[in-house]
Design goal:
Helix content is 63%, strand content 6%. With 109 residues, it is mainly alpha-helical. It has a domain of 64 residues. Helix 1 packs antiparallel against helix 2. The longest helix is centred in the middle third of the chain and has 40 residues. The protein starts with a strand and ends with a helix. The mean pLDDT is 86. This is Zinc ribbon domain-containing protein.
Length: 109
């Protein structure tokens, strides 16, 4: 039994395994072209997941900002504090997801 590198996540796995235990990349009976297609499919799933999370964060930030604009709560009230917190957290979440998306796009074979 030898250790090989997973084409998708680059972690060391057994050459006898049919799929990677870390990223579920299928290894058994695949030609190099099939492995490349499978790797591209996994990368696209990761991108789609990050884009969905980015959109959710953006919607939360817009909703909190709209609440602040329309309701205009007192700055010291708990409603204003919650809205400020949601805006800050969701913007940070959005930026972090966009940075993660850039790293996934840079990581090519």
């Amino acid at each position: 039994m030898a250790l090989i590198e997973c084409p998708s996540c680059t972690k060391r796995i057994s050459d006898k395994s049919t799929s990677c235990p870390f990223c579920d990349f299928k290894l058994a009976g695949l030609s190099p072209q099939d492995q490349d297609r499978e790797w591209q499919r996994i990368q696209q799933e990761k991108k789609d997941k990050l884009l969905s999370q980015s959109m959710l964060a953006l919607i939360i930030a817009i909703g909190a900002f709209a609440y602040m604009y329309l309701a205009q709560p007192y700055p010291e009230s708990w409603q204003a504090q919650v809205a400020y917190g949601l805006i800050i957290v969701s913007v940070i979440w959005f930026v972090a997801n966009r940075i993660r998306l850039l790293f996934i796009k840079k990581k090519r074979r």
